[in-house]
């Protein structure tokens, strides 16, 4: 299923929806109400549905099997990030494509050996942005805003010290993420990345949360475009650390919970690695697509 979070009209609360076969949205709450069904999750909170696991998904599948309500065209609503209010920071992975690791050598100003373990960092929750919302640009803060298209993994089952062999059982689904980064802040804050990765609106996510049963995450095409020009075009088959390894390492001594988002790293083609470097400017349009999962379109707003 393609799950989404949407706002029907300005001023109304967010709701969970399902994209139907016609590309329109079935409002889960309205469908359940019309059929006199009680739901085992809060239909305004995607994390609640994720935590309800198969019980929640089963209830949604039952509704969709005989949906009777009027579906809403996608263009008539505002789509939010599927998990628009994460309960903790977004977990991220650095340098997880070999070619991106190589293009970073100039930026790092020194040669670094390939890592033995994944490099983890996080983006603050206020960075999460909608799939079609504007990304703020303030030159007083940063004028080196860069793009990073990534596959996002949404955890569906609580776990700690998860074995690689069991890791995929903890995955609820997948989404598209762009780890938009302020390179000057990232580089200038003593080598730690939190500030440069966490500016407001710098983590567009969506448009859908596609359930794990419909996705083979091992060979998904990952693309970014700026003003229609392709900047990144690769595949998750080139991930240096695969998803089971990432989950196993991240969960060592650290409890993962339903609704946690893990962004798995970006392929080559980012702005800082180009000659000369390229960065986003007000008026630009950043598109991020993972074939089979959906595409985002975020204007840069000054």
End-to-end C-alpha gap: 36 Å
Secondary-structure element string: EEEHHEEEHHEEEEEHEEHHEEEHEEE
Q: Helix share of residues?
A: 10-25%
The first-level CATH class of the largest domain is given as Alpha Beta
Q: Architecture of the largest domain, CATH level 2?
A: Alpha-Beta Complex
Structural class comes to alpha+beta
Key words describing this protein structure:
302 residues, alpha+beta, Fumarylacetoacetate hydrolase, domain 2, 2 domains, 12-stranded mixed beta sheet, 5-stranded mixed beta sheet, 8 helices, globular
Structure description:
The structure is a single chain. This protein has 8 helices and 19 strands. With 302 residues, the protein is α+β, with helices and mostly antiparallel strands. It has 2 domains: 79 residues, no CATH class; 212 residues, Fumarylacetoacetate hydrolase, domain 2, CATH 3.90.850.10. The model has no long low-confidence stretch (mean pLDDT 94).
In short:
Helices cover 20% and strands 30% of the residues. It has eight helices and 19 strands. It has two domains: 2-80, no CATH class; 90-301, Fumarylacetoacetase-like, C-terminal domain (Fumarylacetoacetate hydrolase, domain 2).
What's the SSE blueprint?
Layout: E1 2-7, E2 15-19, E3 24-27, H1 28-34, H2 46-65, E4 72-73, E5 78-80, E6 90-94, H3 98-103, H4 105-108, E7 119-123, E8 128-129, E9 135-136, E10 145-146, E11 149-155, H5 164-167, E12 171-178, E13 181-182, H6 183-188, H7 194-197, E14 203-211, E15 221-226, E16 229-235, H8 243-250, E17 261-263, E18 285-290, E19 294-301
Parallel strand pairs: 6-17, 8-14, 9-19
Antiparallel strand pairs: 1-2, 1-5, 1-14, 2-3, 3-4, 6-7, 10-13, 11-12, 11-17, 12-14, 15-16, 15-18, 18-19
